[in-house]
Amino acid sequence: MGMTDRLATLFERIHPAWVGLVGFALYLRTATYGFVLHDDPWLIRDNRLLHELSTASVWRVLSDFSPEQRYRLGAEYLPVRDLSVMLDFAVHGDWVGGHHLTQVLLYAGVCAVLASLVVALFGSRPLAWLTGLLFATHPVHVETVAWLSERKGVLGAFLLSSSLLIATSHLRRGGWKRALAACVLFILAVAAKALAIAGAGALVLIVLWLGSSVDRRRQLAFVATYAACGLLVFLPIVWVGRSMGMIAPYHGDGFADTLLLFFQTHTQYLELMAYGGPYSVEYAIQPGDVGLGRWLPGALAAALGAVAVVWALFARPRRGAVTFGLAWWLVFLAPVSHLLVPVQNYAADRYLFLPSFGLLLALAAVLMKLPRALSWPIGAAIIVLGCGWTIVQTPTWSSTERLFENAAQVDPGNADAWNELASVAANRGDRELAWAYTRRGLEHSPGDWRLLHRQGLLLADEGKLEAAIETMQRAASVPEAHMAYANLALLYLKGGSHEEALRMAEAAVRLQAQTTHNQRVLGIVAYEIGDTVTACRAFERAVALDPYDEDNVRNIELCARSAGEAAP
Fold first, then answer.
1. Residue 456 burial by Cβ neighbours in a 10 Å radius (0-12, 13-18, 19+)
2. How many CA atoms within 13 Å lie on the side-chain side of 64?
3. How many C-beta atoms surround the C-beta of residue 484 within 10 A?
4. Which residues, other chains included, contact 440 with Cβ-Cβ below 8 Å and sequence gap of 6+?
């Protein structure tokens, strides 16, 4: 018996759920990482509401839909994600490694459950092992596992994959308890990650590809109930997202631009799935990019994949693991493709976490069709490549600087990366390095408001008020630059231009009223010019947005004293 035969026999005997240990071991090193200044402070580190597990705080997470409360929780309604973070603080306290460890355990669970789902659907343990190993080791998952703010992604995937595994068991054997458990887990999955709603489409695929002992009428009733359960949570999530401005308008000038953007992102995603890299927190994709090489591969691949899936729908013998994997890829890619939902980021590794399972399943199924002497070495080589890429890529998330150094290296035109690097350097007092990052960023992205804003702050720190005001005026040029408007107001106030200061502060609040800094600046400016009514109203708004900030509390006390002194 050859080596490949012995491996095949071993994989037949051992359940593929053990593949979760590979995912756990691969990411265990992240338990030594801390927070990165990329949403982690906002959502976790400084989010005092989640630091104490109590009935009152749980109830606020679940039921408080006020703009202030939603802003504190990421401008979203994802209560299961928030409660999981709250539970982490109850268990681990301020030990950041514990939060990372939870993330790794969830990833191990996702790997184990998805491998088990392959067995449940296709009855092949070797196929499940190969798919599970490809999934556990793929470097595109680094962002989801290593970034604490993406707790929603790994938690939602675990809940959804568990739901689909139980749903598959229900379709095989029936039983209302299995149906109920699948629906409850689906509700929790959507409440952890909104895009888990695509799981309803995955259930449809399972029904179509799976031979079931449950009669067709009951199958349809189960699918309808399952989808309705997801919508119960998804609709308030959409409502909150729209009210908080988290759901972006469609990109470009029309459907043609949106379609082109989808083809571009699909090309990028296929390159990342093919271990092409380099992987980064952001990619150089913009609406309207008509370079043929940027969109044509994605367009052709999408068309071929859709044809293969449609062919399988009309020819039952074609409904195997390959076409199921392609269909899964398309179903889970749809919510992040820009065609159905205009997501804020043009492309992101985390968007591929669930879709990647489908493409990797299709790859594993193709490899399994090859002679064993060929398929096993090729599969092993791909897994080793994935491990290597993941090991190299994971430390990128070990610190804010490493994260954005990588982003700037991948895309030198990434103004946000240069700005973040300059911010980190300035915060630790290294102004020379902060200037160097700012200048390098402006070389690649001249006129970018974020870099001009950073330049203005650096000039102000050096006491060059006139130059700082001039630079900040150039930064305060677009609605996204509301922070620049607020800081320009402070510079005007410092220079004695009170009317201009008030005008800029009001503009900052008008552009983004849910930012504590903007409200606080308006309060400071109004108080300095003697308008205590406006000042106190703005300070009260700042406290509502962040009641734990000491500056906000002091400002309210100042207002209270002023009101007392003004009283007859």
1. buried
2. 18
3. 27
4. 408, 418
- CA angle, 194 as apex, 189 and 199 as ends, to 5°? 55
**Upstream peptide bond of 297 is cis (omega within 30 degrees of 0):** no
**CA–CA distance, 159 with 241 (Å, rounded to integer):** 22
At 31-73, the pLDDT tens digits run 999 999 889 998 999 888 999 899 999 999 999 998 888 888 8
For 33, the enclosing helix (H) or strand (E) is none
Q: Quick check: 262 and 339 in contact, CB under 8 A? A: yes
For the stretch 291-349, pLDDT in tens is 788 889 999 999 999 999 999 998 888 889 999 999 999 999 998 888 877 777 889 99
Helices (H), 138-254: 142-146, 151-173, 176-192, 199-209, 216-243
Q: Cα angle at 144 between 140 and 148, to 5 degrees?
A: 150
Residue for token pair 């070495």: 377
Rounded distance, CA 333 to CA 306, Å?
Answer: 12
Question: Which residues fall within 8 angstroms of residue 160, CB to CB, at 6 or more apart?
Answer: 185, 186, 189, 193, 196, 199, 202, 354
Look over the chain and give the mean of its residue pLDDT values, rounded to a whole number: 91
Rounded Cα distance between 28 and 23, Å, is 8
pTM for the whole structure: 0.93
- The CA-based angle 96-98-102, given to 5 degrees, is 120
Tell me what the mean pLDDT of segment 505-516 comes to.
92
Q: Is 275 left (phi over 0), alpha (psi -120 to 50) or beta?
A: left
Which of these, 306, 286, 304, lies nearest to 295 by C-alpha position?
286
**229-278 residue pLDDT tens:** 999 999 999 999 888 877 766 666 677 888 888 999 999 999 999 998 88
Task: Tally the C-alpha atoms within 13 A of residue 198's C-alpha that lie toward its C-beta.
Answer: 23
CATH assignment, 476-568: 1.25.40.10
Say if CB 397 and CB 33 are below 8 A apart. Answer: yes
Contact 270, 243 (CB under 8 A): no
- Which residues neighbour 340 within 8 Å (Cβ) at sequence distance 6 or greater? 334
DSSP state letters, 429-486: T-HHHHHHHHHHHHHHSTT-HHHHHHHHHHHHHTT-HHHHHHHHHHHTTSGGGHHHHH
Q: At what angle do helices 151-173 and 79-92 cross, to 10 degrees?
A: 110
From residue 73, alpha-carbon distances to 96, 197, 232, 396, 508 in Å are 19, 20, 20, 26, 22
Domain boundaries, the chain: 17-398, 412-461, 476-568
